[in-house]
Automatic annotation (TrEMBL), chains A, B:
One of its GO terms (biological process) is amino acid catabolic process. GO terms for molecular function: L-amino-acid oxidase activity; tryptophan 2-monooxygenase activity. It comes from the Bacteria. It holds the Pfam family Amino_oxidase. It is an enzyme of class 1 (oxidoreductase). Its EC number is 1.13.12.3. This is Tryptophan 2-monooxygenase. The keyword Ribonucleoprotein does not apply. NCBIfam families: TAT_signal_seq. Keywords: Auxin biosynthesis, Membrane, Transmembrane, Transmembrane helix. Residues 61-513 form the Amine oxidase domain. It comes from Massilia eburnea.
Amino acid sequence: MEERSITRRQFLYRAAAVGGTGLLLNTMNAWGIGIASRVNAPPVLNGSGKGKRVVILGAGLAGMTAAYELGKLGYAVQVLEARDFAGGRCQTARKGFSLTELGGDKQACTFDEGHYINHGPWRIPLHHQSTLYYTRRFDVPLEVMVNDNDYSFVYLESGGPLARQRLRPAAVKADMRGHVAELLAKAVKGNMLDQELGAEDKRALLDYLAHEGQLDQADLRYKGRSGRGYAINPGAGMNPGQMSDPLGFKELLASRIGNVYSAVQDFPMQNTMFQPVGGMDAIAKAFENQVGRHIRYKAEVQSIRHGEREVVVTYKDTASGKLRTVSADYCLCTMPLSVLRHVESDFSDQFKQAIAAVAYAPVGKIGLQMKRRFWEEDDQIYGGHVLTDMEGINTISLPSSNWQRKKGVLLGYYNYQTSAIEVSAMTPSERAEFALRAGEKIFPAYRDSFESAFSVAWHRVQYNLGGWADWSEEKRQSVYPLLLKGEGRVLLAGEHLSYLGGWQAGAIESAWQQLERIHERAMA
Amino acid sequence: MEERSITRRQFLYRAAAVGGTGLLLNTMNAWGIGIASRVNAPPVLNGSGKGKRVVILGAGLAGMTAAYELGKLGYAVQVLEARDFAGGRCQTARKGFSLTELGGDKQACTFDEGHYINHGPWRIPLHHQSTLYYTRRFDVPLEVMVNDNDYSFVYLESGGPLARQRLRPAAVKADMRGHVAELLAKAVKGNMLDQELGAEDKRALLDYLAHEGQLDQADLRYKGRSGRGYAINPGAGMNPGQMSDPLGFKELLASRIGNVYSAVQDFPMQNTMFQPVGGMDAIAKAFENQVGRHIRYKAEVQSIRHGEREVVVTYKDTASGKLRTVSADYCLCTMPLSVLRHVESDFSDQFKQAIAAVAYAPVGKIGLQMKRRFWEEDDQIYGGHVLTDMEGINTISLPSSNWQRKKGVLLGYYNYQTSAIEVSAMTPSERAEFALRAGEKIFPAYRDSFESAFSVAWHRVQYNLGGWADWSEEKRQSVYPLLLKGEGRVLLAGEHLSYLGGWQAGAIESAWQQLERIHERAMA
């Protein structure tokens, strides 16, 4: 059907298939329809979907985005959700929340009132305008999530001469960059780079290096600086403070500690990001407020069959154990591919194989409630990440909410791939012990302050079976375009069909894209 | 009196006077009483101040800190405050707030409900444990103040080949550091720095440079990177995003634009800082809640006279115009020196001259209410500073509150010294026009979005007469120790008697220090 006439959109897909992204983008730019401007808001669509039925599988952010936008267009939407709550991976664990991993015991979250861990998505980049479009539209209050804190710690076990020290990233950055600036200044002054630099370039570069590295004006040497922190902070009266001594260049180099940061953070990380006040699931709840009446909860999809005229989805009502069916004109399936592969369907073998080909990332997180915010009180760390090379830990992240309150929930580890599999094999209490053994090496008060834990291993969570689609470049070439196209009356959407893997924006933008295609077909 | 026995404290002052800070700190460290640990909380004092009277001049943060702590010790405290509200410079302009500068017309703030400008102190560093001690103690809710935002703009009028462009600091940092890393890598690989670096150092340094600058693995060249921002952001479907092109090294050097940032921010600036929710004056109000019953408002100090047995302060009740006196055992004067110099007293000529010798910084700020948050909606800038070299502007700072709401109040300029004097000579509406002319060069929507302004020139504000004490190194040597010592029964406190000039922490820590001295004397 859709093959009969080539829409502009279809042409673009073909351009991409034939000429790759380059041709796609060139074509789009030639048409003046740059993608960048398109993704700040849902597609503006004309026509009504009245009388057309769309069944949406999964009430995560992709599914609810589609339900909301298609509902506004007049479609009769029905969302099937296996759980008894909406949101997909957009979850927040707080008192009353419980989780039973596959093959595991039930974990009940017992954090104090007002404390929580976002064990799924936990931060919103400032340029994810699609996510921010809905937080604004649905009036979800946001607060800053401190993603980078130079006054946190970096702690490396295999850090050579700087191993097992609690170092402030500010000091490491100041000293590495200071020493590097001094070294380059020496080369420039020694006329070693005259082939590269003209006289005016040299003057400007020396000026820059002196500024960047705060080098001594007279001899262009790095001798430490205030921003790395003081040994004694300046104060009242006769206390101008006492500078701390810089770390030596050779020690820094040998420790490889400079590799924990980079010139700027990589996209899409930013020093400050956003989190909804009170927990990430505020976004899920806001969507649910809008489309909840269209969601059938405890509806576990069993099979998807699609013919010439309609698509029929069979699901099990897990409350009653009974099988039921929903038929619709189109189906938008937002289930993770790791789950969809286990659903019976009449997809072609090629499509089934494509679904099964995509790996999902094992991802683990643990929230630890501490009865005292020792990281703030003892170490003046307010948010951000403690970076470490300890196996299975990766980061200990401090909460960006409840500043200065009595208690706090920190993230004890955030692991993926191999280490996530290892740690997830432990029981919840073993995981907590594992996290405590690491954390107490860095914070003396860690173990004594610990009250309760809540952990998740996403690859062991029913209806998710993984953190996010883990695309290889090869799979992006081979099966991604196929999955993106869908089959018959079924289209797929979710973070797995975007280049924003693992981000809520990927789910939303993918939904925008696919609902537009459904609408195009319905209007055809 | 205090000279009779040399307390440890007095010894330290002498050590500082004789041997400078170095001797002071060495002595303290030898005694194991490092200052750093001392300033996290008020001094722990024994004994009762019962029956002793202390008159405190000024209900700013220094005065209220002293009133609170001395009150807890049992002293009868009386605070004289010239204004009809407490807080000193810790003010927030919101609807209902008004200000008449000396020689100026009354400005009434007409911002919408929920919007404000902190025209005095506006950010709290994470290591200012003294300020944070009271926000915690008084349960003042804090939120993150985004002090550094790599996705804001830098806009230089005299930026050579990059003049008048809205550049993201992230791009400038990525490109400058990338090019610099490449250049140094070239020198290292070319064995130009073999005198400085051993073989292992070279390997480690090349590894670091490749990481810091994200250099191409094969040829160690810088070719741009994701963190500088994309031309087209990655999105759903067939859109992996399109990288943007790096700025050229020669253009960057010639523009001198790299000098807007540094390896790390200088102390006490941090990427994220704090602000009280709803306005900085929440701190003033929290103190006022505690000590308000001891404050006599509209009490304008006229004279200070101190004899053997007591100190007598005369003030004018500006409501009635009548002169009244207060006598006390001790006086803690927290008035700015710029104001105190105009108060009649029987201080020695030397002390009077010391007071008069200290310059105060002219400081100006303007808040502009915008009916639309175009910086967020159009440019995805959420907080932080737009850096510019435009005369009298310095920074346009975006609010770290009311994210995604309809309106917002931004800081249109933050100027000091010469440019503050020039701008402050304008009428309030001329200042707004001045700010708009600058801002509209950077943001097309600036002027059309403007609704109302509120500005302050602290050097023109009665009872302040300046932003903060502007200490020269020479004055720190000559008159600072004298002022710190006080005279007779009068001690001075405030940010001007600290090395935390202009910060609230300076006022608080100075008060802690001087109230301890009062207590020592009272107990002697």
